[in-house]
Every structure is written in C-alpha cells, then in structure tokens.
Amino acid sequence: MNRRVVVPALLACAAPWLCGCQATDAIVDYFGPHADPTLTSLAHDASADAHALQELDPDAASLRAQHADELYSEIERLCGRDEEGHVPRSCEVNREGEAYEATDAAAVLAAASSSIEEQLDAVSPESRPLLVAQAIAMEARSTDEPGAVPELTEDDADLATELLDWEYRQVYALDFARSYVTPDVEELVDERLALHENRVLALQEAVAKIGPVPQPAAAYTSTSGELPVDAASARAFLDDVAHSDTVTWASAASQEVPDQAAPNAEWRSWLISVAAQSHRISAA
C-alpha cells in the first residue's frame, strides 16, 4: 500500500501566487522567530497608556512612551536581525495600543505596574530586569511606602539574609558619613538612617521565622567608593549610597526563582516596592 505524502502548500508552491519571493516571505513568516506575546501585550499597554495620559499627565505619558519603546526594542533584540540589520518579518508587530480615556494618572501607573509584576514569570529571565525597572519607575512616582515583609519561604532565605547584611552596611555607611556632613545635611542623613533601620528590623523579623538571624559586623568596607573624609566627600558619598541601594534592590527583585519552587509573588512585589522607595530617595 502506498503511503500518502502530504507536501505543505508553502513548500510545494502549487499556487502561482505563492511562488518566488512571495513563497519565501510566507515561509519566513511561518517558520521564523515571533515576537514574545507577553512583551508585545505589555508594549501595546504602554503605548495605549502614553496616548491616554498625554493631556492628563505629560510626564507620566512620557514615561509610558519610553516603556513602550524599550519593550519594542526588547522584542526586536530577542528576535535578532539578519545580515542587513533588519528584524525578521515574522517578528514585526503593530505598535498601536487599544485607545482608551484616562481620568487618574496615578491609577494608570499603579495598574500598569501590577500588570508587569503579574507577568514577570511569563518572560525570559534576560528580559525580567527591564520589566522590573519599569515597575520600579512607576511605583517610585507614588508616595506609598513598603508594607510589612510578606511570609518568606525556604527558597527566599538566602536572598533575605543577603539583603539584611546589605542593610547593615547601609546603616554603617550612613552613620559614618554623618560624622562629616555639615549641620544642614544631618536631618537628611537621620531620615535615611531611620529608613534603613526600619528595613533591618523588618528583615530580621522575617528571617527569624525561617532560620538564624545574622548580626551586623563591627565595621564594613564601603561598597559605594571610598568612605568620606570631609563634608564635600560625605555629601557625594550619600548620593552614591542611595544609587547603589536602588541598584541592589532592583537586582534582588529581578533574580530568577529556583526551578523547583513556585515564585513568591508577594515577596518579589515587596522587593520592587523597596527598590521604588530607594529610587525616590536617589532621585530627590
């Protein structure tokens, strides 16, 4: 008995309109790389937000337009380019989001940030830092402060302990800098010290529920350059400390969850909120 051979129409070119360049294009469209659906959806949302916020809040609209550009660029980066530098036809996407009217810019950004957080595990780990950075930038525009540390799992223990040690270092650095700042800057340092001391207490309480709580060392070397030696270097040092703090917490929120574990979404959301808090301080 003869086996029936099925030849795909795209390859057989039985129809004249599929021959030549058109057939090649059709094959590329079918078999070529395709835009990440999650990134595409988020990019469309960002484009729609930017349009809706144009009159309501130009700064927020500009932020969301930037996010859209970043997401479309990330889509193209993942798809790759041909020898002539062009993105494959199969990866081309419509850059218009679905139009809508906005009445509250803060609500738009809050919803966008929540949407990003909910879809972080749907994108590749290499795209996650971009999405986390966007969520942080939007949450930083809010005045909301991080709440209590959520319940941690055993898989969160190492990161939580590392962050606790980081906060010990921040307290030491700020306390050291306070000895050199001018009187008009002392209040600023005290506010930041109180913030980091609160983080220390919150992390100590959370870590204690899952394991031993490390204690601070007697002294630390600086992770933000040389320790200050006078008022001028102390003021610059404060800016470096604030920047490195934002980077550290953003990096923590972007870390990949172990393969064996389900992601602790509440913990990651808390990390993003702390990074947003640091972002506000750094930008002030």
From TrEMBL:
Question: Mind telling me what this protein is named?
Answer: Secreted protein
* Stretches assigned to coiled coil: none
Task: Please report the organism this UniProt entry assigns to the protein.
Answer: Corynebacterium hiratae
Keyword list, A-Z: Signal
Q: Which InterPro entries match?
A: Ferritin-like, Ferritin-like_SF
Entry superkingdom: Bacteria
Q: Where is the signal peptide?
A: 1-23
Q: Does the keyword Signal apply?
A: yes
